[in-house]
Give the backbone structure.
Amino acid sequence: NVAHGLAWSFYVGYLQLVLPSLGKSIDSFRASHRNSFWGQGPQKLLILIPLNTNISHKLEEEDNYIQFYDSLPNSQLDRAGIQGRVYKHSVYRVQDENGKAHDCAVEYATPLLTLYRMSQDRRAGFGEPERRQQVLLFYRTLQDILEQSQECRNRYRLILLKDEHQDDAHFLSKTILKH
Amino acid sequence: NVAHGLAWSFYVGYLQLVLPSLGKSIDSFRASHRNSFWGQGPQKLLILIPLNTNISHKLEEEDNYIQFYDSLPNSQLDRAGIQGRVYKHSVYRVQDENGKAHDCAVEYATPLLTLYRMSQDRRAGFGEPERRQQVLLFYRTLQDILEQSQECRNRYRLILLKDEHQDDAHFLSKTILKH
Ligand SMILES: Nc1nc(=O)c2ncn([C@@H]3O[C@@H]4COP(=O)(O)O[C@H]5[C@@H](O)[C@H](n6cnc7c(N)ncnc76)O[C@@H]5COP(=O)(O)O[C@@H]3[C@@H]4O)c2[nH]1
C-alpha cells in the first residue's frame, strides 16, 4: 500500500527529524525578525494535505493573501552519506479578511507529489480513482504515527484540504487562519 | 507494496530533479577543486543499495580508505511550499589498494532508512524477513524507472551491496572503485 509507506517515510525521514527542534527554530526566527506576528501558544508546523493532490511550489501562487516572508534557520544533518543535508521550512505571512498579518511555518506534505505523479504514469500501477483513497490512507496513517510520538507532540497540525471551496480565491488563507 | 512506492518517491522527488544537472555540477566542482581526481567518461552519482539496509550517515565510518572531500555545489528548488529547498551531494575521496585517490559523488539510497525503521516498528506491518524482499523490489523498480528515463541516462550507477564480504574492512572502497 503506497500511501502507508509514504506516511512512514514522511515521519522517519522528515517529521521525526525536524519537529523536535521546531520550537527553538521559531524562537530564533522571532528574535531575528522583530516585526513578525506569531500567534499565542505552542508554535507548530502546518502541513497541508490536499485530497486532490493539487500542490503549488509557492503558496502565494494559490492565494494572494499569502506572501513568502523568509525561511526558518536551516538545520543540517548527516544522512545516509550526504553530509550536512539541509532541512528548512518556509514562513509565510497570511492576511486575514481585516488585513491583519499572521506569520506561520506552513507547507504541503511533499509525498503527495509522488502520489500525484504515480497516478499519471501507467507503469506505477494506480490511477486517479485510487489516488483519493491513497491520500486518505496517508492522512490517517500519519495521524496515527504522530499521535504516538512524544517528541513531536504539539509541534504539527495536519490540515486536510477538501475540494468544495476551490472557487474561493482566498480559500487557502482562510483555511490556514482557522488553524 | 512499500518498496514500490519508495522507489517512485526516490525518482520523482529526487533523482529526476538532480540527475539532469549532475554533469554541470561536477564540471563546476572540478573547476573550483583543481586537485580533484575524477575518472574518465560521463560523471555519475553512485547510489549504494545495501541488502541488509545497514546505512552509515558518513561513509568514512564504514571504511577508512574513504574520506569526505567536499559537497557538490548546492541546487535550490521551490518544492511544495518550501522555497529554496536545498539538494546537495557529498564528494568522497576513495583510496585504492595502491594508495591512489579517486573522487566521486556517492551516497546511500536514503529510502532504505525508512524500510529499516519500518521493520523495527510493529505498527508498520512488516518485519526483518520481508525487508530483504522489499530492498530487492526497491532496486528492481528503481532500475526499471531509471532505464526508461531519457533525462537521467548515464548519470547514475545503482550498486547493490550484498552481505558476503562485510568482514573486509575495505569492502566498501573496493566495491565503489569497481564502478
Ligand atoms: N518538505 C520536505 N523537506 C525536506 O527537506 C525533506 N526531506 C525529506 N522529505 C520527505 O520526507 C520523506 C522521507 O525522506 P527521505 O529522505 O527518506 O526520502 C527522500 C530521499 O531519499 C530523496 N531526497 C529528497 N530530497 C533529498 C535531498 N535533499 N538529499 C538527498 N535525498 C533527497 O528523495 C526521497 C523523497 O523525497 P520527497 O518527495 O521530497 O519527500 C520526502 C519523503 O517523503 C522532505 N520534505
Q: What stands out?
A: The radius of gyration of chain B is 17 Å. Chain B has a mean pLDDT of 95. Chain B touches chain A through 50 residues (CB under 8 Å). Chain B is about 35% helix and 25% strand.
